[in-house]
Specification:
Helices cover 69% and strands 0% of the residues. By secondary structure, the chain is mostly helical. The protein has a single domain, classed as Orthogonal Bundle (434 Repressor (Amino-terminal Domain)), CATH 1.10.260.40. The radius of gyration is 13 Å and the shape is elongated. The two termini are 21 Å apart.
Length: 89
């Protein structure tokens, strides 16, 4: 899903998480099993990850608590919205 070329809060937090882990973008992409270009787009706010990728991001084992909580909240909200739209349609 393409978005406007703007830095998103999600992208900023994702970059902070990656830097905390001392990963390059390429290393983070490998951990998430995605292309480095795709990962770069997440950090720049051009693209949003799917549910599976969000789960992997939220489960980075050494992430700071507040970042993990934020990622899990995003995942929960997306799952809830998906369920609501499924029920309504």
């Amino acid at each position: 899903m393409e978005k406007g070329n703007k830095t998103s809060i999600f992208g900023v937090k994702l970059r902070m998480l990656r830097e905390h882990q001392e990963f390059s973008q390429k290393e983070a992409a490998e951990q998430l099993n995605i292309l480095p270009d795709t990962y770069s787009r997440y950090e720049r706010g051009i693209r949003e990850p799917n549910f599976q990728t969000l789960k992997h991001i939220a489960n980075f084992s050494t992430c700071p608590l507040i970042t993990c909580w934020t990622m899990k909240m995003i995942l929960t909200l997306k799952l809830c919205l998906s369920w609501i739209f499924t029920v309504l349609l």
